Amino acid sequence: MEQTPLYIRVHPNDNVAIVVNDGGLGEGAVFADGLRLRERVPQGHKVALADLAEGDEVVRYNVVIGYALKPLPKGSWINEHVIRMPSPPGLEDLPIATTRAPEMAPLEGYTFEGYRNSDGSVGTRNILAITTTVQCVADVVQHAVTRIKAELLPKYPNVDDVVSLGHTYGCGVAIDAPDAMVPIRTVRNIALNPNFGGEVMMVSLGCEKLQPERLMPPGTIPIAAAVDDVADIGDVALDQNGDVVVLQDESHVGFQSMITSIMKMAEGHLKRLNNRRRETCPASDLVIGVQCGGSDAFSGLTANPAVGFATDLLVRAGATVMFSEVTEVRDGVDQLTARAANADVAQAIIREMQWYDDYLKRGGADRSANTTPGNKKGGLSNIVEKAMGSIIKSGNSAISGVLSPGEKVNQKGLIYAATPASDFICGTLQVASGITLHVFTTGRGTPYSLAEVPVIKVATRSDLARRWHDLMDINAGTIATGQSSIEEVGWELFRLMLEVASGRQQTCAEKLGLHNALTLFNPAPVT
Ligand code: CA
Description:
Layout: E1 7-8, E2 16-19, E3 46-48, E4 57-60, E5 63-68, E6 77-78, E7 83-84, E8 111-116, E9 122-123, E10 127-132, H1 138-152, E11 161-165, H2 181-191, E12 201-204, H3 212-215, H4 230-233, E13 238-239, E14 242-246, H5 255-274, E15 279-282, E16 287-292, H6 303-316, E17 320-323, H7 333-339, H8 343-362, H9 373-377, H10 383-391, E18 399-403, E19 413-417, H11 423-433, E20 437-442, E21 455-459, H12 462-467, E22 474-475, H13 486-501, H14 508-512
Parallel strand pairs: 10-11, 10-12, 12-14, 16-17, 16-20, 17-19, 18-19, 20-21, 21-22
Antiparallel strand pairs: 1-2, 2-3, 3-6, 4-5, 5-7, 8-9, 8-15, 13-14
Helix pairs in contact: 1-5, 2-11, 6-13, 7-8
The structure holds calcium ion (CA).
């Protein structure tokens, strides 16, 4: 279908706009207001709305995203080759809690069917998770998981899945380095995710640096799930810190003995998990993580604003929502500190930005390393433009708390959970922080998902939603063409979240059995 030439300007002060049409527009195309393209402009890319002289500011989202490197007459294609990126805002003299969040009435009466745990948290899935203390045991555990799923899981129909929490940490690392706390608490807190019902079981090799008692110090695991059913489980090594199978234990003679021990221990946990039942819970018990990946210029126009609208609905309903991705908010840090609920929250945001600036600097990089070839092909010229589109996922609510990478959340409202922007690392850290449902927007397209929590994927463009019809849960591309509004898609997403959280609907990735491996963030040295 031939569409009339269409562009979207985000803010009245912007001097560039985004070409909406599938396939882009050729030289000479004329928009409704008479603007004529001087050259071909691909879909999602920017067109100059005014004549720009060399050095002039290029403004999108009412923010300077760059400076013209040469004269760019009205109708020119504005891409990364013709603009220079601005410096990031400094971390001094930022506005501190200056923006009052818009008055938003509480949203009442929305519920979902969840699994309430003894600590009050609520899961959206009922999963047996097997924690590993070191990469060395990964394949043994995976072998056991395959057998557990085939031989035991059918006997426990209320349990949704069995997953191995594999990772590459645990040994060959400077485990006493200060930053080692990041991967260690990540592995620990993932095991305590509400979707796993407090049923922690670990598989250890025996000689690794990350010993089970270091991973799960006494008192870490909720009482209800701590050691019981000892008699049922039999000859496995048991520990006051939880249930542990140690492969190097002298009781093991041969591989089958290890598998049998893991399966016996798993069965004790499956029995208890099988007794869990969904119950009606207020939407305030939801803990949602939002993320974007494979972004394009539409991310900030369609999917992310719709997610932002849904974020505000969730906050109004009293839920917890996390947004993350340090390099994708760094250029808008002033917006975040201004939106902080109080000075302590603003200072915590600055602390996390400073930590990440230093981390990148140690590696000889800065936030500009974020954008990918696909981002640029999708019309995002640089990280400033990408960040402005990314932050929109957080909606308009006040930021009520900040988490360092992998820390567990313990409050409601909008939370800034500092993580890298890498999709799987951000997802892994949000799982550690306690999300029970993940919302992921994409413009280029990615099959990304997680085994630990359902992942709802939102397409930024109708063309992607059409081609990836069985991988994308929601199409926000209709916002660009005016067929639906940000509010409509935001409500659609909010309702879908309640359905998926309740287990009444599976995500596309769940139906296909797709999920990415957990990927830890280890800023500390390896040895
Ligand atoms: Ca990401």
